[in-house]
Amino acid sequence: MRLFWTDSGWQYLAEAVASSASLTLRLNDAGPGMVTVTVRPPVEARGLVAVLADGTEVWRGKIRGYRGSQARNNQQKDLTVYLMDLVGILGDCLAWPEPSGNFAAQEFDSFTGKASSAILHYVDVNAGPSALSWRRLGITLGSDPSLGNDVKVSARFDRLRNLLKEIATLGEVRFRFQGTTLVVDQGVRYDSLLFDVNAGTVEKIEWEYQVPEASSVVAAGEGSGTTRVIVVKYMPSDLAAWGNIEAFWDVRGVSVASDLEEMALQWLRARASGYSAVVTPSIAIRSGILPGDTVRVYVDGQERNMVVTAVTYSLQGWTLTVAERPGVSTPDLVRLGIEKLVRGVELLSTK
Fold it and tell me: Which pairing describes strands 189-195 and 294-299: parallel, antiparallel, or unpaired?
């Protein structure tokens, strides 16, 4: 893998002379990067691009900071550069209630439709080609595939990346960048490849099993007191295996019981029991495997279909973080996603 410093317009400046690197892509979330170099980046450097030997780009991000070190008896000066991928950079933006800045015109920027359409809309008007010129991040938008569940979203100064993550979670889609183009799609299944120590495709695997965060939930929607919309849902399999682990979920902004029931089931599925693992493959980096894809992994004596939640590239190779359910390894995605979105009316009314 080769690393190249770029300017603010992504033009290559110089190849990075790195002693170590860790560059991560995460499922619908910020991907951090850290590179330690012995030769300082050019003064104009604002970003970094990582490519494989065949020229395939696997990571792109912007510089977020530096840290230097030098030992008394060592003339070598190490410099660590901290970076964030483009999904993470979307966290620099807010989702304005009125994209032109006329905040007296409307309280929310509301959108109803397919999840992919919602994601592209909010990026377009807050960071993309339709945003105010000084707010644009220099990104382009892919075509709308009209994928995912229908969602209903209201934005008012939400952190853009968090809002997109929420939509993707409820809509069951993923968003990612190809170069500087935002793409919304759904994961790919890699059935022909088995990650297994005994098959020689894995150098090392570390796994864990987690019991459910909750096996039943009391979900409370709109209203108050005895007039409040309240539903109770449970997961029969986890209830039978682990007993009743109750949770209360405050879901302001939902007034239809059937909608609340479906959301409660989604909430429980994301918190169900399951395996997660960090896999160090012994095979060369496969640039096609991305967060959100499904791969076959031999874990704890059994072959399992697991979702890739993160891919980390280094100078030595790559690692995959996988989970039977994305919520198992990334509970923050669920908490910041589903809970915050369905409480949008309550939360946004204070802004």
Answer: parallel
**How does 247-276 read in b/e, with b if 16+ C-beta sit within 10 Å?**
bebebbbbeeeebbeebbbbbbebbbbbbb
> 210-263: per-residue pLDDT in tens?
898 899 999 998 788 899 999 999 999 899 999 999 999 886 667 788 888 887
**What are the residues whose beta carbons fall under 8 Å from the beta carbon of 345, sequence distance 6 or more?**
154, 252, 253
Contact 45, 8 (CB under 8 A): no
Q: Tokens standing for 128?
A: 């993309």
Question: Nearest to residue 166, comparing CAs of 179, 189, 149?
Answer: 149
Distance CA 2, CA 160 (A): 31
First-to-last alpha carbon distance for the chain, in angstroms, is 45
- Calculated CA dihedral for residues 254, 255, 259, 260, nearest 10 degrees: 70
Q: Which residues pair with 204 in a beta bridge?
A: 280
User: What pTM did the predictor assign?
Assistant: 0.82
SS3 320: strand
Say how far apart CA 43 and CA 138 lie, in whole Å.
21
What backbone phi and psi angles, to 5 degrees, belong to 45? -65, 130
Backbone angles phi, psi at 112, to 5 degrees: -130, 125
Separation CA 3–CA 48 (nearest Å): 7
The DSSP symbol for 229 reads -
